[in-house]
Amino acid sequence: MLEGLPCGRHADPHAGLAPIGLPPLPDTPGSDPRPTLRTLAERTGLHTSTVSRALRRDRASDPTAALVHAAATELGYRPDPLAAGLRSGRTGAIGMVAHSLTDLAQALIHEEVDQYVLAHGYDVLVAATRDDPEAQRKRVELLLSRRVDGLIIADAHRDGAYADWVATLGVPYVLVMRGAPGHPAITVDDELAGRMVADHLADLGHTRMAHLAGPSWSAASYGRAAGFRARLAERGIGLEDDLVEPGGLHATTGRAAMERLLDRRRDFTAVFCASDFVAFGATSALGAAGLRVGDDVALVGYNDLQAATAMDLTSVRTPQDELGRIAAEALLAAIDGCEPQSRTLAPELVVRGSTAGSGAPLADAAGAAR
Amino acid sequence: MLEGLPCGRHADPHAGLAPIGLPPLPDTPGSDPRPTLRTLAERTGLHTSTVSRALRRDRASDPTAALVHAAATELGYRPDPLAAGLRSGRTGAIGMVAHSLTDLAQALIHEEVDQYVLAHGYDVLVAATRDDPEAQRKRVELLLSRRVDGLIIADAHRDGAYADWVATLGVPYVLVMRGAPGHPAITVDDELAGRMVADHLADLGHTRMAHLAGPSWSAASYGRAAGFRARLAERGIGLEDDLVEPGGLHATTGRAAMERLLDRRRDFTAVFCASDFVAFGATSALGAAGLRVGDDVALVGYNDLQAATAMDLTSVRTPQDELGRIAAEALLAAIDGCEPQSRTLAPELVVRGSTAGSGAPLADAAGAAR
DNA sequence: GCCGGACGCGCAACCGTTTGCGTATGGCCC
DNA sequence: GGGCCATACGCAAACGGTTGCGCGTCCGGC
Closest residue by Cα to the C1' atom of nucleotide C7? Predict the structure, then answer.
């Protein structure tokens, strides 16, 4: 790959910081490269090691600590995580690997993780993998080469291979959102959520339902579908294979999935979607087919994002913020040497207008439509 | 703030990584900490400096380079960016500061930036600021302390204070999406976009329009509104102040804004929204008020996200992916010493069903509704 | 009054790479 | 065949912190 020629003036090799006669220019004090431990040491008349310890309140007398801190704030000293990490092995950074931050659910988790660990002096390095195993390996290795102190994995796959590999890396880690057997994970009880949706729709009188499923490699998507199917079966209502369509997680994939489904069948009265965005896409496809959500067909989303409220979509609330916070908490604890504990959070069904109608006369409406 | 006790067993100061007696076995050679330049040097009988140069193909004979590379791949050597950065000042990381990655437009830009710089050997460190000036300063400083080689600023404010400050930092930087006067920026011609929307709606016959505006501190949001208003004026159609409502960028804020607007007026026939999500929220509020998008009232979004396609929403396509890629390109060039060039990308109006009806009889419909 | 231990601090060796400089070697030209 | 330059490589000093170790001092206990 040809590296495009920059544009002429390259970085002046002598421009570094203060290459040669460091102190021939003592008159420009504004360009002090940036205070370092040595600066503080000279300033306070102490040794750099003492300053280092004083800053971390580690075996330092009160007066010394005060002196050092005063000098530090005065000079605006900021420790260099690179140097510290090099020696100590702790970088104060954690890695989070997501399948994509354009998935709002993952972005929300990231946001919360970021907030939480920031308050504890950590930074987050994110990497997106688009669920590609090759990318997962590469990006985790990249994070590792940056020496992150721990990993939050938000894109685990149900076949534990990926998580198993992460576990061998010798770095503290926590899965979030998507679990994998035998690994510490902060998840929502997706199976229960599926059951709740099944009950809700069955209670409304629906007897023929469809499911726009998420990616099968995600334990979260899988759990939803499994719970939904299981509960329907328990109530004597089947979920026909023909009415289950893979729908991804995005609006476009959801629309396409619904279009495929409508090409095949029109006799369902309710649809459970793998995500809110899939539900939006489905809404659009249904509308184009002359079917109205809430009246002609009941629609349930997943995650209860803000947009679901706005769109009057019945959805399952999965507390992303709590997921993120608890995962971050667990990871920091693991970094401090704790055995990380798995947690399963309870989902909550939020009923809105998209499941307002009853399940009775819909087949007719569908038949009459268009 | 009380630091929650980890869980009992604190980090054993002598434990380093392996917590307790995890591997008391020092004879396992598989756990070689990880190959370093010295490892390679001993292996090849060369000096570390030679190895370092050979790896970067800098003044090394062909046979030496081959030897070193062979050893490197055999041992799975990965250079340590921390150590390299410490010495060289270049960390191979760039910083991106966004207002929030839960804003899909920003997430898309981040994704593209990430992809692009990854292919060129860089990592991205993101920071979200929620448009809070305090957070902007803090997080940029954090990025700087991690010694990023450059900055991509996606949350600039129209009052140039923030961008001006960034410019004084002595780090290459590029603004993206939101510009600021006098700074290199990759943006969309938002003013033109506003004009295009105005023309589209005016051509349809609308004469009384509303605007759900984005944050006024964003040059992007501001430009949309300004262009919209200016073009309407040129065509002899006013935009009443009473019909401009601040609507944020999210679905919930959009819904709330539309509700406020509807409380006040119902005689508008078209609404230009600052973002697609605002339009979704507005759709919901309009529906609750008995008004149907496309029939009773025309709705235009902004950004043309996937969901807009799915929801049949007329929108302005602003190529986030190109924005991200070009910004990344510009920043890497700037890091190589080039003067960064600003670029303005052309928006594109994508007409869909939400502006299907004509502007004529809507006031009546609105009046009759409910 | 003496001894032991805790405490505060300095010293110097690291962590893994890069890089200015010095040196030895080889090839080339005259 | 001698002088010269380029080239390939080694040496050691950085970069900015952290940390094991050792020493001196002060304090308390008997």
Answer: A59
